[in-house]
Amino acid sequence: MRFFPLLLFTIVLFSCTTAQKGLSPGNAVTYAYTLNLNELEGGQLSVSLTLTGWEQPTATFCFPKIVPGIYGDMDFGQYISSVEAADADGNPLAIRQVDENCWEISNAGELRTITYRVDDVWEDFDFNLKEGFYRSAASSFKPESFVINTNCLFGYFEGFEDMSVQISITKPEGLYGATSLERDRNKTTAGLDVFSVRDYHQLVDNPILYAPADTAILELPGIEVEVACHSTSGQPISGEIAQYIRPLLESQAKYLGGKLPVDRYTFLLYHNLNEKANAYIGDGLEHSRSTLILLYMPLDLEAIRQNVYGIASHEFFHTLMPLGLHSREIADYDFNHPKFSKHLWLYEGMTEYFTMHMPVKTGLQTLEGFLRNIERKILGMKDFDNTIPLTELSIHAREMQDQYYNFYLKGALVNLCLDIRLRELSGGQYGVQNLVLDLIEKYGPGRPFEDDALFDEIVKISGYPEIGAFIDNYIAGAEPLPLQVMLEKVGLTLEDGAVTEMADRTSEQEQLRRAWIGQ
Q1: Which pLDDT tens digit goes with each residue over 192-237?
Q2: pLDDT tens readout for residues 55-75
């Protein structure tokens, strides 16, 4: 999570489908949810779930304690009330709450429906923030707009997270539902959206923004991008934002070898007007095929574009990591008892490095701007405990939230060093861009790697045994980063936190720098 006065990033990691659990052969449970946005009362909505294929004698109905990529226990069950269970004839079944997020139905063989009420989590996106609370993972309900994170409204039965889900949402006249979920065209009407979803993991991976239509479509080679916005000012802004995002995506495609990793993507932007000049905050939550961006700032289109640009760049690179490359801990994510991967140095650190490296490598940014960015990260890193190995911080990020932001500082800089080292070993021909694409070729979507095996795989795939020592020292270990040494290899000096160009550079330094950043 990126958390500071200008920008706040919350990264939600991708979860892929896993094997069915708790079912006899040939038996399949399906979820059918109904939600009516017209029936908003006191900030609450009513939700109904109908089950088919359920034959289990007991059932535990849950909402997530935490969702992939956030590192504070949100306990989404705390916003659920009036939970009732019934059989096919509407007769009530005994149900009891067993903890903050789960309800147990002991005599569940006849279970057919669950009903409950959901309270929204936040009223307005503003400066009222607290550690461990991720507003972009939560929901807001207003008659004129609904920011819906599906993990807030829809639950699952333990052991049955992999069953198919249908969501039917009745919407107010004049509101459009923007999402990367596919609509069921045979059932969707003017006032009703019906979404058919592979499983609960995919459902949680797709937020929805209901608001008056303010959308723009970008057609780029191999991908269609929808930009859907809602500003409480009432002014349409999607066209301006879309045209600012276009060159970003074109440059990312160039950076990744000419092709973006997904064929459809949605940017969802909620802007809450702040009348005070030069006071703003942004919060971005990434998903495999969409990004939800919350902004609290004046109606200053240039400032909005700049904030969206920074968030969108980082979040879109997450389509590589962890969508295209992730460990089994992410693939088999447990929403109430998660086990964390030790590779946030890759998921967040490498993603942030790509975000800072891409503009200079593709010519969008000057060398001067790039060097100032390096300096800011070096300075920011000093506010954190750099004696904690990045792998340990990753595993314990939930308990070390005050250190988590260092993945965007030290995590980015360790990958900068790794990039230069790989370029040095390969005569400029191989860097972290190549490494990530090679890893994705072997461990793409649906092929998670084993957490403890990744470092050996990096050495094997890169072909350079020396990288093993680099990993041991600076990623699995906590030796001070060799920034001064690595920057000197590309003709740069680091002194008292300032990064400058050497006056007398060798031809080898010039050649390695061109291979690294193209200038």
Answers
A1: 999 999 999 999 999 999 999 999 999 998 899 999 999 999 999 9
A2: 999 999 999 999 887 878 899
- Provide the CA 519 distance to its chain's centre, in angstroms: 32
Parent domain of 263:
2-9+213-317
Whether the Cβ atoms of residue 47 and residue 35 lie closer than 8 Å to each other: yes
Residue 477 contacts by C-beta under 8 Å, 6 or more apart in sequence?
A: 389
| Domain match, 34 and 182 both | yes
DSSP, collapsed to helix, strand or coil, labels residue 35 as: strand
β-strands 223-231, 215-220 pairing:
antiparallel
Torsion-angle region of residue 497: left (phi > 0), alpha (psi -120 to 50) or beta? Answer: left
Tokens of 343: 């590779």
- Together in a domain, 358 and 482: yes
- Residue 78 or 221, more confident: 78
**Same domain, yes or no: 49 and 164:** yes
Sign of CA pseudo-dihedral 352, 345, 378, 382: positive
pLDDT above 70: residue 352: yes
Strand 223-231 to strand 264-273: parallel, antiparallel, or no bridges (unpaired)?
A: parallel
Residue 131: pLDDT over 70: no
Other CB atoms within 10 Å distance of the CB of residue 72: 18
Query: CA-to-CA distance for 205 and 180, rounded, in angstroms?
Result: 9
Contact 223, 263 (CB under 8 A): yes
Tokens encoding 27: 């038996």
Q: Are the C-beta atoms of 86 and 37 separated by less than 8 Å?
A: no
Nearest in space to 397 (alpha carbons), one of 340, 479, 468: 340
197, 125: one domain: yes
Q: Which residues, other chains included, contact 261 with Cβ-Cβ below 8 Å and sequence gap of 6+?
A: 319, 320, 323, 324, 440
**Are 375 and 361 in a shared domain?**
yes
Chain centroid to CA 320: how far?
Answer: 11
**CA pair distance 205, 218, nearest whole angstrom:** 22
Please report the pLDDT score of residue 305 as a whole number: 84
pTM to 2 decimal places: 0.89
Q: Are residues 296 and 243 in the same domain?
A: yes
**Residue 436: C-alpha distances to residues 74, 440, 441, 505 (Å):** 32, 6, 9, 30
